Amino acid sequence: MEKKLIYLYISIGGALGALARYILSAWLNDKITTDIPFGTLFINLTGSFLLGLLYSLSMNFIVSENIIKFFIMIGFLGAFTTFSTFSLETLIMLYEGSLKGALINVVSNVLGGLVATFLGINLINLIAGVKGLV
What we know:
By secondary structure, this protein is mostly helical. It has two domains: 95 residues, no CATH class; 36 residues, no CATH class. 83% of the residues lie in helices and 0% in strands. Helix 1 runs antiparallel to helix 2, helix 2 runs antiparallel to helix 3 and helix 4 packs antiparallel against helix 5. The longest helix is centred in the C-terminal third of the chain and has 30 residues. It catalyses: fluoride(in) = fluoride(out). Keywords: Cell membrane, Ion channel, Ion transport, Membrane, Metal-binding, Sodium, Transmembrane, Transmembrane helix, Transport.
C-alpha cells in the first residue's frame, strides 16, 4: 500500500476519533454524575474492547487489513484513546509469556503517566508562581 494512502487513512481516522472522543466524553460526563470522570472511563474501556475485537478479527479472518489497521485501529482508535493501545500491547506481552514485561508496562504507564502529569502541572505552576491544580 502506498505511504501517502496510509497517511491519509491514519489522518482521517485520527481526526474522527478525536472528535468522537470529545463529543461522547462530554455528553456522558454531562448526563452521568459520578465520583470519577465516567466519560473518560467509558472511552478507554470501549476503545480497548474495540481494539481487541478488531485485532482478533484481523488476525483470524481475511478482511481488508489496511482499512482496519490504518484507518480504524491506528487512526480512529488511536485518537479515540491511547489506553486501548496500551491495553492491547500489555495483553500481547501476557499471551507471549512475558509477565514481567506486562507488569513493567502497566506500572510504567500508570504511575509514569501520573508522575509525568504531576511534573507538567507543577512545572507550569512553578513558572506561574501558583499552587495546586489551576
